[in-house]
Amino acid sequence: MNTQLVICIVIFVLTLVSYMLNKIPMWVTAMISMCALYITGCIDAAGALAGFSNVNTILMAAMFIIAAGFRRTSMVNTLCDFIMKLTKGSFKMAYLGYLLIALLLTNFISSPMVVYAIVSTLLCAYLDKTGKSRSKYVFPLMVVCVSCCGILPLASAIQSAGQYTGFLETYGFDFSFDAMYFFIGCWPILIVVPLWALFIGPRFLPEQPPLPIAAKEEGRKQGNQALAPVKDKIGIALFFLSIFALVFSAQLGLETWFVAMAGALLMVLFGIVDQKNVLKDIPWDMLLLYVGALALGTALTNTGAGDMIGNWLANAVGGTHNNYLLGFLFFVIPFAITQFMLNRAVSAVFIPICLLTANALGANPIGLMLLVNAGCLTAFMTPMATPAVPLSMADGGYDLKTVVKGGALISLILPVVYIFYVMTVFPAF
Questions:
Q1: What helix, strand, coil percent values describe the chain, rounded to 5?
Q2: Full-prediction pTM beyond 0.90?
């Protein structure tokens, strides 16, 4: 173990402790962590500052402005009244509807963060209108967006299947990875996670937010400032056009960050959001928290933490032919690491290890690849796991303790469901 890796792990542990104690703002901890990683040589200047230009950072900031514009339109009340009438006042039925919309969209759009940004805007407006607590219901929605991504054989799964076929060919396997494998191996998640989100998840979350919800407070201040009829129609049109362009960004040949940025700028130019105070709609504390988290994840990757754990896993597997032990290792370890490192980096380490292990043991790698993919993508316990987490922290007023508590039970349920089901349907031996 090299010196820089040891230093990086020490900074990582101290950062987590500071997050949990919450004695100083989390964004301050994140920035101190980033500076410490730079000064100790764990990352260079480019790695430390890369988060500020990261696609997801820009996307998050722009989506908050779009959401702020939408909240000022009359469509918010219209949609809320329609949903309450449609569900006959049943909050459970309305909330289930939002969860199902998220489940469907996250299989069309490969970014759970984009899906969360779209659906949470509608859900938060409904929660504020009906007087329900954001803190109890925002986090479970985010978990649905992350956990159910790419399971149906639609755009996200087809894209991932193509990448995995390339991996199989590279490592000498003579068959392809079908997009239907994601659905065949993972369909129980489409039932388990929404049911958890509907009936169980909110019970582990507080009625009152641990931290102030800036967007909600700003919305109250502007609540009586109705838009002129023309601006109101333009704001509604811009919001739904932005959603349409995000859903079909691949077909339109546009990057999601550009779509969100264009939508946000148009909201400003047309005066849908207050041009003088528009930057107040962006939760800068959560953006800085995410930037710091990216720097920490980059440092862990650069110093070889992922490779070290991957090599340990390869040695731990040894010559075992136990399907469920193999499945446990190839799900739980990526799942745990992805809470602190970028999921693409973790996948890049563990998919090759998975295939090399399958070659050495004469095993079928399909189920193991599904578990690595699931472990890398179903991460929501820290702001480093996925950009959807800091978004939900801003919307729900969560601190890290609340996020960990809210996600603890589903994080125990998912491995059990995934490992036993996937390794039964797609056994390695």
A1: 75, 0, 25
A2: no
Per-residue pLDDT reduced to its tens digit, 72-106: 888 878 888 888 888 888 999 999 999 999 999 88
Give the separation between CA 69 and CA 267, rounded to whole angstroms. 6
Question: Is 82 within 8 Å of 285 (Cβ atoms)?
Answer: no
CB 379 within 8 A of CB 385: yes
Q: Per-residue confidence at 122, pLDDT binned at 50, 70, 90?
A: confident
Q: Following DSSP, what letter does each residue of 350-413 receive, concatenated? A: HHHHHHHHHHHHT---HHHHHHHHHHHH---SSTTT-THHHHHHHHHT--HHHHHHHHHHHHHH
Q: How far apart are CA 98 and CA 100, in angstroms?
A: 5
- Domain residue limits, the chain: 53-148+204-285, 155-187+303-425
At a CB cut-off of 8 Å and minimum separation 6, what does 248 contact? none
CB distance 316 to 17 below 8 Å: no
Kindly report the number of other CB atoms within 10 A of residue 182's CB atom.
26
Torsion, Cα 209 210 214 217, to 10 degrees, reads 50
